[in-house]
Specification:
Rossmann fold, binds guanosine-5'-monophosphate, four-stranded mixed beta sheet, five-stranded parallel beta sheet, 9 helices
Length: 200
């Protein structure tokens, strides 16, 4: 299963993914970006930070599952670690933009579950964005301008979760994972086994 978390900047995606990636059966897909590293970020944990030249080379080599320009920088998900984690039966967790999320759903129709994280008001979003203070003004401007587009994309997601309290969001995601695990598409083998036992 691939759990994709998306939503506008300031919706709280990073806090939520940091909590979820501590779980044993979860593999977090660390994205590659050309954005400069923020002070509190750790190379290889938050992102793999590369220059534009390296990013474009990796695009040409077909190393990305998906990639997109977001707010003026490139971001991409590497194919190999995701495929390896899926083979091991891990739950792959991604924090990517809405366009990338919809692309992942196209590629992994049965495996991907798209979660759209949102705050209760535009004011809260704006406050968090401005309060963050880590971005240059032009990036902050782009994040605000993108909001409408992201909200429209959110309507196409499997689940929409309002982030009022972190614990409530985490509980909601646990419930979603449990329900998704029981979906018939993921459990055909149980019935097939019974059918085969019936026949023999
Ligand atoms: P930030 O610069 O705030 O860390 O991330 C900016 C946006 O890029 C966020 O919406 C984040 O979800 C998105 N993002 C991060 N990694 C990827 C990725 O690998 N692919 C895509 N398409 N978007 C990403």
């Amino acid at each position: 299963m691939i759990i994709v978390i998306s939503g506008p900047s300031g919706a709280g995606k990073t806090t939520i993914t940091r909590r979820l990636r501590k779980l044993d059966n979860v593999f977090y897909s660390v994205s590659v970006t050309t954005r400069p590293k923020r002070e509190n970020e750790v190379e290889g944990f938050d992102y793999r930070f590369v220059d534009v030249e390296t990013f474009k080379k990796w695009v040409d080599e077909g190393r990305f599952l998906e990639y997109a320009p977001v707010y003026g920088n490139y971001y991409g998900t590497l194919k190999k670690p995701v495929e390896q984690a899926l083979q091991k039966g891990k739950i792959v967790l991604m924090d990517i933009d809405t366009k990338g999320s919809l692309r992942v759903k196209q590629i992994f129709k049965d495996e991907a579950v798209l979660l759209f994280l949102i705050t209760d008001s535009v004011e809260t979003l704006k406050e968090r964005l401005i309060g963050r203070g880590t971005d240059p003004p032009e990036v902050r401007e782009r994040r605000l301008n993108n909001l409408k587009d992201e909200l429209e994309d959110g309507k196409k997601f499997d689940y929409i979760i309002k982030n009022i309290s972190i614990d409530d969001v985490i509980n909601a995601i646990h419930s979603i994972i449990r329900a998704e695990e029981l979906k018939s598409i993921r459990n055909q083998d149980i019935i097939n086994k019974l059918l085969s036992d019936l026949g023999s």
